[in-house]
Every structure is written in C-alpha cells, then in structure tokens.
Amino acid sequence: QKEVEQNSGPLSVPEGAIASLNCTYSDRGSQSFFWYRQYSGKSPELIMSIYSNGDKEDGRFTAQLNKASQYVSLLIRDSQPSDSATYLCAVSGSSGTYKYIFGTGTRLKVLA
Amino acid sequence: DGGITQSPKYLFRKEGQNVTLSCEQNLNHDAMYWYRQDPGQGLRLIYYSQIVNDFQKGDIAEGYSVSREKKESFPLTVTSAQKNPTAFYLCASSIERGIQETQYFGPGTRLLVL
Questions:
Q1: What are the start-end ranges of the E strands in chain A?
Q2: Which of A59, A101, B68, B103 could form a disulfide with B92 if both were Cys (CB 3.0 to 4.6 A apart)?
Q3: Contact status of B39 with chain A (Cβ, < 8 Å)
Q4: How far apart are CA B20 and CA A40, in angstroms?
Q5: In whole angstroms, what is the distance from residue A60 CA to residue A36 CA?
C-alpha cells in the first residue's frame, strides 16, 4: 500500500513566523511531488511542485525534497493569517504511473 | 476565461436515486479525474480518463460510473449502489507531461443524502 503521511495538526504559528509542513512517502520510486492549499469548503489549489532533490523557492514558499529520506517539506516564510488553511501533500510518478497519492493534510493556523 | 467548472455546487440525492455531477474544462487538457474527499481523509481516486472514449477505475469505483465522449467533459454518475455517497466531489484535469504532469482542480460539488 503506497502511503503519504502528514501530521494532521493543527500547526499554530504566530504571524510573521516561518511555518514548516512535513510529508513522508512510502514509495521510493516516486518522482513528482506537489503541495496544494485547501481553504475550508473549497477545492485544492496548487502551490508548488518539485521533482529533484534540494530546494525550490517561489515567493514566500520553499519546497524541499530529500528522496533518500523519502521526505518533502513546505516552508512558508512571513506567515500571514490568510495562509491559514489545510495543506495537502501529493506524490506521483512511481513506475510510470500518473496517479497521485494524497496525504490527509496538515491544518495550519496563523495567529494574528 | 480558462478553467474547470463543476456543477451543481450542492446536490441532494434521495434514496435509490442516481445523480450526475458535471465536470467541464476548456484548458485543452488530455486527462481528467474524479476524486472523493471525506472529512479527515485524503482525496481518493474514483475514476480517471487519459483520452476520449477511454477511462479506468480508481481506488473506490464501486457505485460510480463515468463517460468521456468529449475531451472537455467527464461527468460522474453516483448510482444507487453507492451506499454512502455524502462527500465533497472534486474533478481535476491535467496535460500529460511525464513526471511534470500537474493536476488542477475544479471548485467541487458537495453531495448530500436526503
């Protein structure tokens, strides 16, 4: 059973702090990794994608991938109350399949 | 204005009734997907289609059916055989680009049982 694990939270951080969200996956053959943000009652919105080891930065967001440890993380710098949402980790690409495996999400609360 | 549309936003199903959820995209994406989301659970794949007139079962296809007669449209029917249909249903689409294939989601349909 291929799995993607996330701490459900809530993760509470003060406004302006760095929020660190973590995700581990079981299938070592996975090639593609995604972070989605989902506000309550809304659909997931793509934030970041990452395909190779290391860091990828986009504005206040940084995705980090470590395939050896089967670990992917999302850092949110200068967290804002508007960042309060559930963050979903998705993994795909194992054995040539396009199917995504989603984690259950981490709920982030940014305190003003 | 490109995007993925789903209708209706809310849908109520009576006992023994089949209902159909609409999903349309004008992004010229090849692949389309249907997911179900329950509280506290990750998204679970119901059906997917990589090309017109072809589709495959996902992890939880029982009680659901789909068609893909046009590239832009991928409707999902929730049949009376689906005994626990209350959930948030999400349609997604993607252009097949190898490992960089990225899925984008529609706004979702919330299905409730009367």
A1: 4-5, 11-14, 19-25, 32-38, 45-50, 54-58, 61-66, 71-76, 85-92, 101-102, 106-111
A2: B103
A3: no
A4: 24
A5: 15
Contacts of B105 in chain A (CB under 8 A): 36, 43-45
> Which residues of chain A does B50 touch, with a Cβ-Cβ cutoff of 8 Å?
98
Position B101, amino acid = E
Q: Report the alpha-carbon angle B105-B110-B111, nearest 5.
A: 130
Judged by a CB distance cut-off of 8 A, whether residue B31 touches chain A is yes
Predicted local distance difference test score (pLDDT) of residue A105: 95
Residue B48's nearest CA partner among B57, B61, B40 is B57
Q: Out of A45, A99, A104, whose CB is closest to B45?
A: A99
- Give per-residue pLDDT as tens, A47-90: 999 999 999 999 999 999 999 999 999 999 999 999 999 999 99
* Residue B90 forms contact with A (CB below 8 Å): yes
Cis, peptide link before residue B8, omega less than 30° from 0: yes
Q: How confident is the model at residue A16 (pLDDT cuts 50, 70, 90)?
A: very high
Do B78 and B21 meet the contact criterion of CB atoms below 8 Å apart? yes
Predicted confidence at residue B111, as pLDDT, reads 95
Task: Report the amino acid identity of residue A2.
Answer: K
Q: Which residues in chain B are contacts of A104 at CB distance < 8 A?
A: 40-42
